[in-house]
Amino acid sequence: MRDLSSSLPSPSRRGVLKGVGGAALLGAGIPLLSACGSSGSSSDPKTVSLGSNASDAVPKKAFAEIYAAFQKQSGITVDVNTKDHNTFQEQINSYLQGTPDDVFNWFAGYRMQFFAAKNLASPIDDVWDKIGGNFPDAMKKLSKGADGKYYFVPLYTYPWAIFYRKSVFQQHGYEVPTTWDQLVALSKQMKKDGLVPIAFGDKDAWPAMGTFDQINFRLNGYDFHVELMAGKAAWTDAKVKAAFDHWAELLPYHQDGFMGRTWQDAAQTLVSKKAGMYLLGSFVAQQFTNKADLDDLDFFAFPEINPAYGQDTVEAPTDGFMVSKAPKNKAGVTKLLEYLGTPAAEQIYLKADSSVVAASSKADTSSYTPLQKKAYEMISGAKSLTQFMDRDSRPDFTSTVMQPALQKFLQNPKGVDSLLASIERQKKTIFASS
């Protein structure tokens, strides 16, 4: 989600983003990420350094309030090194191989495991001995590396869904679609009514991955999604072609000019009631700064395509913290992570950012907004949870192959056969490497 220095590559969202492999491809002009201040600051027993990708105003403020509360309780200062969200993702590999901060913001699942396997992160089983009772089994699983050790403390999660304005649906008499045919019919009607049916911005190249995920697991099921992301299923499989064929049917209803539009810009067309729907993570709510607009925001699960799978899979990326390979203040780091794994820390964050829900099963949900309650119900009621394409697959594959490939498809959907053959060739090369 996220930010905003005009001199840097365009912003991106809180969770997904350009992959690790992009670090080497970034090109000159942007200084590499580095740890806070001098390396000596981290060796102070009263200071823990933290590399943060929370460059947007809402999460930046929410995290600052958590660290202030931790300092008050422990006497330990969290020295925060905030970088533009997109840049952080692109340069994370080089950053972790250099002199990183003690702790850094990152994502659960495959992308966490990727760094753990490369020995660029420290296991934190000792922390989980203290905080394990605060989390459900699904979160514990998402926090472990392939070696069975813990490497991650989750803080919040959020669903991807189709967002809309209740007043717009009421004004036009629209009904929430539950099947693919209903979604296409509604999109056609919105176009007739002068609305942009589906707000869309893919300047940063990650939003399109979310659309593919939804269509793919609705059509082909969770297991196929996992196999495809893991490099085990072929991109030339007829199932993949069918997913792109469905997407091509919906493309005429996507907002024009998406290659030059960020997700925030696209969100503004929903805020201003110029667009009828928007497929995105619930962090879209951060763009609704007026309470009346926010109260008017609602969402529904991506409609069923294949009755065999219904709407049983929910994309719910989970964000939290990892420890670098050689933290300078190990004792302080342990105390910080034990605090970050408490319901109290989550409550502080959620009070400042109501677009997400707690990862902990012990967090107090009584103050949740209607949107948060619905998000929590959607996630907790899902048969299967995914993370997002570039969290469920190799980051070098998603950044160097899938992001440009999906943009090519969006601009020329008729060339999909040769495109899928190209993806498959590149996939085999990348997944064959260590």
From TrEMBL:
Transmembrane domains' residue ranges: none
Keywords associated with the record: Transport
Highest taxon, organism lineage: Bacteria
Keyword Transport in annotation: yes
InterPro entries tied to this protein: Bact_solute-bd_prot1 (IPR050490), SBP (IPR006059), TAT_signal (IPR006311)
Family: Belongs to the bacterial solute-binding protein 1 family.
Name of the protein this chain belongs to: Sugar ABC transporter substrate-binding protein
